[in-house]
Write a structure and sequence with these properties.
The protein is an all-alpha fold. The chain has one domain: Orthogonal Bundle (Farnesyl Diphosphate Synthase), CATH 1.10.600. Strands 1-2 form a two-stranded antiparallel sheet. A hairpin with a 2-residue loop joins strand 1 and strand 2. Helix 5 packs antiparallel against helix 6, helix 5 packs parallel to helix 7 and helix 9 packs antiparallel against helix 15. The longest helix is centred in the middle third of the chain and has 27 residues. About 2% of the residues have low confidence.
């Protein structure tokens, strides 16, 4: 069994039922739509977000039909954002496979992403899960704001550590916090408990994104993905921001020149990675990641010991121990 199999153990039956329900909800009478959705279903990822929904639900009560609605909402939203991101980034690859954008081009990819978002809204309305819809809709809004804010900052190269945390809280952490909040809400928990579990998800989401940013500076053979993608896209993430804040004017100028040339010439990426490493950027980011992980686990520690708590604890650790 893999680590994720062990984590899924307390919700194994629920996850199996969810997969069947989710697959059935994607069916359509339009052949092209079915073709694209089946492709998406075949390349499913680790399903960490539905796992957070079901585990936090079970931690706080008995799983209900609303829990399945929450998991479906989250998975549809997440899949839609991935499809749209590939269009925005002009990416031809996702999880080692061709993206929707690469196979069916941007027009169909955009429409597919819109369809998935709409499908999520309809599922919530049909099940009268308006409180869950509010949680997820707020997450969508924050994710879009975060994406636009990152684009704005990257154009001017003036992102600070404060700006960085503001952006990743909106871009990444809000989706994980929507998982933990909606899972908790689906079992009838009080507003205070829902808020606590929302914060739990936020801390995990921040740690998760910092881990992604650290992986971008790792060698290709270790992570299984190209190094320096953020550098090529001129995204200033925590390791680089910290390194720049601890550099001289001339060092900053030299690095910015290399960043501007990195899209055209990959040879400029390695000196940037070496610069970040030598300035302690990776060490600082790693320490920050562990700090947020510990904040999340501290909130989890208020619950009595159980197999569900252990699974959630392991899932939190997995988000920062993963290799890709």
């Amino acid at each position: 069994m893999t680590i994720l199999d062990n984590i899924k153990a307390p919700i194994k039956d629920e996850m199996k039922s969810f997969e069947a329900i989710f697959k059935d909800s994607m069916k359509s009478n339009i052949p092209l739509l079915n073709l694209v959705t089946n492709y998406l279903l075949r390349r499913k990822g680790k399903q960490m977000r539905p796992m957070f929904v079901f585990l936090t639900a079970k931690l706080n009560g008995n799983i209900t039909s609303d829990t399945y609605t929450a998991a479906s909402l989250i998975e549809l939203l997440h899949t839609a954002t991935l499809v749209h991101d590939d269009v925005v980034d002009d990416s031809n690859e996702r999880r080692g496979l061709f993206s929707i954008n690469a196979i069916w081009k941007s027009k169909i990819a955009v429409l597919m992403g819109d369809y998935l978002l709409t499908k999520g809204l309809l599922i919530a309305v049909e099940n009268k899960a308006y409180d869950l819809l509010e949680i997820v809709s707020e997450a969508v809004r924050e994710m879009i704001k975060g994406e636009l804010l990152q684009i704005q900052r990257s154009r001017s190269f003036n992102t600070t550590r404060e700006h960085y945390f503001e952006i990743i809280k909106m871009k990444t952490a809000t989706l994980i916090s929507a998982c933990t909040a909606s899972g908790t809400k689906s079992v009838g928990s009080s507003a205070d408990i829902v808020e606590q579990m929302k914060l739990f998800g936020e801390y995990i989401g921040i740690a998760f994104q910092i881990k992604d940013d650290i992986l971008d500076y790792q060698l290709h053979g270790i992570t299984g993905k190209p190094s320096g993608n953020d550098i090529k896209d001129k995204k200033l993430t925590l390791p680089l921001i910290y390194a720049l804040e601890n550099s001289s004017f001339l060092e900053k100028k030299s690095i910015f020149i290399k960043i501007n040339k990195s899209k055209k010439k990959s040879a400029n990426i390695r000196p940037i990675i070496d610069f970040v490493t030598s300035k302690g950027g990776l060490d600082y980011a790693t320490a920050a990641m562990h700090e947020y992980k510990e904040k999340a686990l501290e909130l989890l520690n208020s619950y009595p010991d159980s197999d569900v708590k252990t699974a959630l604890n392991d899932l939190v650790n997995y988000t920062i121990d993963r290799k890709k």
